[in-house]
Amino acid sequence: MGDLIDPHQELAPSRRVDLDVWIRPLCALVVAGVAAYASYVHQRKFALQGGADEVSASLWPLSVDGLLLLATVGLLKPSGPCTRRARGAVWSAFLLGIGVSLAANIAAAPALEWKPVLVAGWPPVALLLSVELLVHRPVDQVDDEVGQAREEGGDPNGDDPLLARARMIDARHRRLHQRPVSAETLRQQLHVGAGRSRRLAALVTGSQSQGNDADELRDPVDG
């Protein structure tokens, strides 16, 4: 009788993960949509004040926020830009985009007081934060991918040559970029399919996290 497990306890984590997978992106999309609309209206007004015609004023905000969103996604991706020139280009685009977007939104405020400036300047900030929330995955989802990868790929400490190469690539990537390697980078360097690269990335990330936890537990004992 002591070995019986309440089925509700088994279903609770999966339901929580499923709700998070759906609700978090949905809320982020709503916030991003509202912020993008408000930013578009302010920048279109600014472009009209700057002498642009109706068509140019309608397209101008897309070039500003579009560049900003592209740079933001490039910075938030785990793989990220690899070369110094690529990183410089992405950071330049990000800083230029956020500067122009904030300036255009604030310039469209009816008065240079803190309330109108806050209302006009908030949309581009909210848009950036919502994009970041959309890009990052919840921890539980990553843990589920690790568990699935272990079930399908076997023992993560086994003799899988692809897994060994993936760990080497991950170690080099962490040294260069201070972050774990992405599934897309593993797919390109190992020449494997998308599903296999995701499982390898989950295994590498999971084993690295377990190693860090073990080191943290071992340090007080050694001291």
Radius of gyration: 23 Å
Q: Class by helix and strand content?
A: mainly alpha
Counting DSSP H or I runs of 4 or more residues, the number of helices is: 8
SSE series: HHHHHHHH
Strand fraction equals: under 5%
Instruction: Characterize the overall form.
Output: elongated
Low-confidence stretches: 1-14, 149-158, 213-217, 219-223
Please provide a written account of the structure:
This protein has helices at 7-49, 54-76, 84-107, 114-135, 139-153, 161-177, 183-190, 194-222. It has 223 residues and is an all-alpha fold. The two termini are 43 Å apart. The chain is elongated, with a radius of gyration of 23 Å. The chain is built from eight helices and no strands.
Quick overview of this protein structure:
The chain has 8 helices and no strands.
Can you give keywords for this protein?
single chain; about 220 residues; mainly alpha; 8 helices; about 0% strand; disordered C terminus
What's the arrangement of secondary structure elements?
Elements: H1 7-49, H2 54-76, H3 84-107, H4 114-135, H5 139-153, H6 161-177, H7 183-190, H8 194-222
Helix pairs in contact: 1-2, 1-3, 1-4, 2-3, 2-4, 3-4, 5-8, 6-8, 7-8
